[in-house]
Amino acid sequence: MAKEKFEDALNKLEKIVSKLEDGDIPLEESLKLFEEGIRLSHFCNQKLDEAEKKVEILLKGKDKMLKPHPFDPLTSSGQASKGKSGEEEEEEE
Q1: Which residues contact residue 82 at a Cβ distance below 8 angstroms, ignoring those fewer than 6 apart?
Q2: Is the pLDDT higher at 39 or at 83?
Q3: How far is the C-alpha of 72 from the C-alpha of 47, rounded, in Å?
Q4: Which DSSP category does 89 fall into?
Q5: Residue closest to 72 by CA, chosen among 56, 49, 60
Q6: pTM for the whole thing?
Q7: Could you tell me the residue ranges of all domains in the chain?
Q8: Confidence of residue 70 (pLDDT cuts 50, 70, 90)
Q9: Which residues, other chains included, contact 85 with Cβ-Cβ below 8 Å and sequence gap of 6+?
């Protein structure tokens, strides 16, 4: 099987959900679609987990060494702002 893309899998999953929600298909086909939906759901979750692990922002620590920090979607740059004392503080919205 060719390498599946996240976007393609998500589109297929959305179509499956729509068909299942309509409820106008036989039970056997519903079960097949449900199984495929579960497979696609697992695939998409795996891809999202991989992406999350890759999305890290490198910041210099006090020792001037680069260290990874998880991406924080609540801050615009993902980096904590520095207060007057030079200590890192979380940005407030």
Answers
A1: 88, 89
A2: 39
A3: 19
A4: E
A5: 56
A6: 0.59
A7: 6-53, 56-83
A8: confident
A9: none
Per residue, the 3-state secondary structure of 51-78, as one string, reads HHHHCEEEEECCCCCEEEEECCCCCCCC
| Token pair listed for 86 | 């030079």
Residues paired with residue 69 on neighbouring β-strands, in sequence order: 57
What does the block give as tokens for 56?
């890290």
* Pairing of the two strands 66-70 and 56-60: antiparallel
82 has a pLDDT exceeding 50: no
Token match 């890192």: residue?
A: 88
Exposure of 80 in the CB half-sphere (CA atoms within 13 A): 13
